[in-house]
Write a structure and sequence with these properties.
Layout: E1 2-3, H1 10-21, E2 41-42, E3 45-47, E4 52-53, E5 62-66, E6 78-86, E7 96-97, E8 102-105, E9 115-119, E10 128-137, E11 143-145, E12 149-153, E13 175-176, H2 177-183, E14 186-189, E15 202-208, E16 223-226, E17 232-235, H3 237-241, E18 246-255, E19 268-273, E20 294-296, H4 297-302, E21 305-308, E22 319-324, E23 327-328, E24 332-333, E25 341-344, H5 347-354, E26 361-371, E27 374-386, E28 413-415, E29 425-426, E30 435-439, E31 450-455, E32 458-459, E33 465-466, E34 475-479, H6 481-487, E35 490-500, E36 509-510, E37 514-518, E38 524-525, E39 529-530, E40 553-557, E41 569-574, E42 577-578, E43 594-599, E44 608-612, H7 615-619, E45 630-639, E46 644-645, E47 648-653, E48 655-656, E49 659-660
Parallel strand pairs: 13-19, 20-27, 29-37, 38-46
Antiparallel strand pairs: 1-8, 2-5, 3-4, 5-9, 6-7, 6-8, 6-10, 10-11, 10-12, 14-17, 15-16, 15-18, 18-19, 21-25, 22-23, 22-24, 22-26, 26-27, 28-30, 30-34, 31-32, 31-33, 31-35, 35-36, 35-37, 39-40, 40-44, 41-43, 41-45, 42-45, 45-47, 48-49
């Protein structure tokens, strides 16, 4: 045979040879049915029973093999062959050519078959049934047709183009060691879909420890295989055991016999808890409720926590999930924390769960251990909660809760005892005098309610006021001088009051703070201290000695951190009196008096030692034999421009042997 259109290249020739080798039966001439030529063979058929084509075949030129026919061309003869297609049935006038005519010249032998012809795949529909045949103009110019081949074109994936396959059906129970020991592999089922074909449809399932996305590995399925009539699937036990505990997601692809691939399915979730499980869970504890099992508003301000005791087989990957009342908190990882593990209850949850209740509210507190998303527990206790308050109603919602300050409780005013200064200003002429303060009666006040007052943050214990609605409004209360004196001076000294239902009530609302310009106290600084006082309570010559240094009287100035600041100055005064007893009078030691000014820095503000020297000028005048050899050492200091200490007085004797101190 001489083909006028030979194979285009060696690869095509090799392909033709292989196809011929696969068809040894074609060496035998078949009998034509109804004078029709034997039907052609179409490459790429997925199902030879119904003629379904592989999906990929629809995207490439269609390969058609022509089997041997009886009347072969001889030398000088030729035949022309066309591939034809009908989409309306095996009806003569419905066929049309889908390939160019191929001319084959004689002589031809049976061994030259099958003949390979390429047809136009674009003539095939995306979906639907077609009939394919070939027609031939034989060696004597007569037209002939072959038996047709029914084909099915299928490019629609399982579940269709637009629908995402439903999630696989998997066991709802957690997968633990006991489950795997009983069941082995994890068995599941795929949901039913249209046009199922058992053992011809294929599935591939994938197992992820995170929600699947398009960038995941879909080339390595956890398992794959033909889908049976029950649509059973399995996840191998060995695969599950190679992964840790946690929540896992299972998805799948379906492939029909034509090779159409479905969209990725929706995910199913399974929970895996392998190894020793959490056991011996203990009741939770609320530390601030220990003793009385009561939580009040002050506890909420401090911050309420729930403690989870140790349980057997705890793991760092476990999570603890606390429920307060009816609200479940965000789970907390065990991690590397030490038991008991403390979990904060958000203030918003405390407020929500107490609501508008009044008095004690019995509140359940529980927790679960989550291994993956599998819960163990719960363990539960109940605590009494009382966040109720009196007075002006707080806003709802209340973003500042549990802050006790209620803007409707107006700030108090204070007036100094002299009556000479404006309200909320205290001056030196108010010194040593009780002050008075006033405040308006608050909304919803009732007889027997208790008002307490805080000066500079300290409770004025003996100034409590018990509400009596017959008292005039505004209410006036006396503030004893001792509280003013104890707090000292401050240009913005805070002053406020609180209200509560009774003496025994613990929940309070606080007024707006009043800031007082307080400068009524004449402040006295702490006394300086002498170094080297002996066991007989004297300063003596030995008191003045310090290795490597000249004789000097050493005086310690105390820590002044609360009194001044770096950059200020301290002035020290030295003015000893003659004689060691007050009965000696108050005559100064002649020529001994002196003063020094010291700059205060970050070190000296913490306290420092001052030296009274030189000895011969400041101390030796004390020794005036035979008139007097003793004195009363007197030292004081002051912050320049500020308060002063009183005089620190100490007996001093500078006689040693038959003379004054020996100067080495």
């Amino acid at each position: 045979m001489k083909a006028l259109r030979p194979p285009k290249n060696e690869a095509q020739a090799a392909n033709l040879a292989q196809r011929r080798a696969r068809k040894p039966h074609m060496q035998v001439l078949p009998d034509a049915a109804e004078n029709l030529l034997d039907k052609p063979e179409v490459l790429g058929i997925a199902d030879p029973v119904d003629g379904t084509l592989l999906r990929d075949t629809l995207h490439e030129p269609l390969q058609v093999d022509i089997p041997v026919f009886r009347h072969l061309p001889e030398e000088g003869d030729y035949v022309d062959i066309w591939v034809q297609l009908s989409s309306e049935g095996d009806i003569e006038d419905k066929y049309h050519d889908i390939s160019a005519g191929m001319t084959f010249a004689g002589p031809m032998e049976s061994g030259d078959f099958p003949l390979q012809i390429t047809a136009d795949n674009k003539k095939l529909p995306a979906n639907g049934k077609v009939w394919l045949r070939y027609r031939m103009r034989n060696a004597v110019g007569q037209p002939e047709e072959s038996v047709s081949v029914p084909l099915i074109c299928d490019s629609t994936p399982p579940w269709g183009l637009d629908i995402q396959p439903a999630a696989p059906l998997l066991p709802a129970t957690p997968i633990d060691d006991a489950y795997l020991a009983t069941h082995g592999d994890l068995l599941g089922t795929l949901p039913a879909f249209n046009d199922q074909e058992p053992d011809k449809d294929l599935y591939k399932i994938y197992y992820f420890n995170h929600w699947p996305d398009e960038h995941d590995d879909y080339t390595t399925p956890a398992h794959e295989g033909p889908l049976n009539a029950n649509r059973d699937i399995l996840l191998p036990k060995a695969l599950i055991e190679t992964h840790s505990d946690g929540q896992y997601y299972v998805v799948y692809y379906l492939f029909d016999k034509a090779g159409n691939k479905s969209r990725l399915s929706l995910a199913s979730t399974i929970h895996v808890t392998l190894g020793a499980l959490p056991e011996n869970l203990q009741d939770p504890e609320v530390p601030l409720a220990r003793g009385d099992n009561l939580l009040d508003l002050q506890d909420a301000i401090q911050g309420i926590t729930v403690e989870i005791p140790y349980y057997d087989n705890a793991r760092a990957t476990d999570h603890l999930q606390v429920t307060w009342g009816g609200t479940t908190l965000i789970s907390e990882p065990v991690g590397g924390k030490q038991f008991p593990i403390s979990i904060i209850v958000p203030k918003s949850v405390l407020r929500l769960e107490y609501g508008n209740f009044t008095g004690l509210k019995d509140t359940p507190v529980s927790y679960q251990v989550l291994r993956g998303d599998v819960p163990f527990g719960p363990k539960s206790i109940n605590v009494d909660v009382d966040f109720s308050v009196i007075g002006p109603v707080r806003p709802d919602p209340d973003p500042d809760w549990p802050d006790p300050i209620n803007a409707e409780l107006l700030a108090p005013d204070v007036t100094g005892g002299s009556g000479n200064n404006p309200i909320n200003i205290l001056r030196r002429d108010d010194g040593n005098l009780d002050a008075t303060f006033t405040f308006p009666r608050y909304a919803n006040a009732a007889d027997g309610q208790v008002v307490d007052f805080y000066w500079n943050g300290e409770l004025a214990e003996d100034v409590r006021y018990t509400v009596n609605l017959s008292d005039p409004d505004p209410i006036t209360v006396t503030l004893p001088w001792k509280y003013i004196e104890a707090a000292g001076n401050h240009p913005q000294l805070p002053f406020y009051y609180t209200i509560r239902a009774s003496v025994d009530a613990t929940n309070v609302q606080q007024s707006v703070v009043q800031f007082v310009d307080a400068d009524a106290v004449t402040k006295i600084l702490p006394l300086p201290a002498y170094e080297g006082i002996n066991s007989s309570n004297w300063l003596v010559c030995a008191s003045l000695r310090e290795a490597g240094k000249a004789l000097a009287l050493r005086v310690t100035i105390p820590d002044l951190t609360d009194e001044t600041h770096p950059g200020s100055q301290v002035r020290v005064y030295w003015d000893p009196y003659i004689g060691s007893s007050d009965s000696n009078g108050s005559d100064p030691v002649p020529g001994a008096k002196a003063e020094w000014t010291i700059d205060i820095d970050a070190n000296t503000i913490k306290g420092f030692t001052h030296r009274i020297e030189p000895y011969d000028e400041r101390l030796l005048p004390i020794y005036d034999w035979p008139n007097s050899t003793r004195a009363r050492a007197r030292v004081r200091y002051e912050i320049v421009g500020g308060p002063s200490s009183e005089w620190a007085v100490q007996r001093i004797s500078l006689g040693e042997g038959n003379d004054s101190c020996v100067v080495s």
